[in-house]
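ligand=adenosine-5'-triphosphate
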Amino acid sequence: MTNPHDDPDATPPAEGHLSPEVEVTVPDDLPDIAEVVAPDRTIRVDVGEPLVSLNDLTVTFGGLTALDHVTFDILRGEILGLIGPNGAGKTTCFNAMTGVYRPSAGTVTMEGKSLVGKKKHAITQAGIARTFQNIRLFGEMTALENVVVGLDARHRTSVPGAIFRTARHRREEREAIDRGMALLEFVGIADKATAPSRSLPYGYQRRLEIARALATEPKLLCLDEPAAGFNPAEKQELMALIRSIRDDGYTVLLIEHDMKLVMGVTDRIVVLEFGRKIADDVPAKIQQDPAVIAAYLGTDEEDEDDGAA
Ligand SMILES: Nc1ncnc2c1ncn2[C@@H]1O[C@H](COP(=O)(O)OP(=O)(O)OP(=O)(O)O)[C@@H](O)[C@H]1O
């Protein structure tokens, strides 16, 4: 059995998401990602205005309060870190924002409109995309096909159009491939476009997840522990990628345990502990915050008071 992973120049397999006759090439001269990947996206660079607002957000599971009246804004154009010890409520917060969990109380709004109760696809349409702690890709599909799935939300051809391969469908498919390739190039894995995603090295799969999330043309990209399992060099590369995503006009919400990465890449950090927000500030201040230090050292408040004296 051949392994397409060994042959990055191979054309896509006949089975899969794309038409078999479609040729895949990496363009020599890649224009700005925002133009190629998201032609429909209106880029607003007015940093500082709230894009998403969480107000008194509360999520309970039976008797357990996983998020307890959490309030913070995600400002347009920033990289916001969401940190906290294990079980602090970070993923629950993501899940409540992205339609996985329905909050017990409080609100989540994006550009003033409520996201509470919206289905996942409606939240994608509203402009929020995410990656997962445990990578979720279509393993049998190629890297490119995984990205094209994300782009599909923007396709307008009808089912008969796709079946009869109308000119419009072919044009849209060509555009999707060009944009998919530009995205793979942007995240640094275009050389593996035709490899089945499950055959990709771990770091490539993480990058592919980011490319697929960007394909939905989000305003807010939520990354859930994107550096898990990375070595220091890969973490450095990831930091550069996250910065370039922000520089392209996206807003980024980052959950990450690696403090060096979080401190190095974020503009602001919100800290959760036992479901409550305990700090919200710039990285330099967060590093010095006694409540944050205590949360991470696992000391109780009395110890902290003693230590501060
Ligand atoms: N679906 C669920 N059902 C019941 N309890 C849950 C559920 N999801 C999360 N929890 C609980 O809610 C609390 C917060 O969990 P959450 O996963 O949000 O924390 P976290 O900060 O993301 O932790 P980690 O850093 O370990 O991923 C934990 O006590 C967890 O056990």
